[in-house]
Amino acid sequence: MSVADKVAAIFSGPGIAGIHFKLGSLEVSPQRLHEVGRAIKKGDISIVVAKTGTLLSAAYSPHSDSLTIPDDKLATKTSRSGILHEGIHALVDIYKCKQVTVLDDEVAAYLAEVIYLKAIGGWVGGGKAAMRIYDAADDLAKAHNLYKKRGVKLSLSDADELRKAIHAHPAYSSIGAKQMTSGHGLHKH
Ligand SMILES: [Zn+2]
User: Fold this and answer.
1) 144 CA to middle of ligand 1, Å?
2) Distance, CA 188 to ligand 1 centroid (Å)?
3) Domains of the chain: which residue ranges?
4) Could you tell me the CA-to-CA distances from 71 to 42, 52, 68 in Å, in that order?
5) Of 76, 86, 123, 188, which is the most exposed, with the fewest CB atoms less than 10 Å away?
6) What is the pLDDT of residue 188?
């Protein structure tokens, strides 16, 4: 199995069926996540195996349509949830969600991650700033029943605490509060 096939399989594998919510205008659904998997399988999104630094475990670049992952084993639940997180950024790119801020793109990615982790029976460990994010995402998911209910609509203000926790993390503190995602779609390959 190629790395791309392994990564793509995450987006149609266990835990994906329960990830369905709307944050403002941004919809995250199993169907859209399947589409991310298909784009990876087809090579429209390329997979790069490399270290992404100490702050983040994986990364998505809308400019090169590439997803960077730390290793090709994907052995742990948290390595797969890290890839799922980046898959949300890819989704925002594929569906040209230009009206979404960078911080709300992160809010959606962390929410998807906690729903995924709960479904596959995993959780993350990390520093204080990172855990503040996961705890806020967990609180938001619980408050709106996202672990059990599908298609829940959240307003942007519902996510204020989670957005604050993300913005306070050193990896995201330089992001402008109103900075928009590029969301320009995948390039022709
Ligand atoms: Zn992110």
Assistant:
1) 22
2) 24
3) 3-168
4) 20, 10, 9
5) 188
6) 57
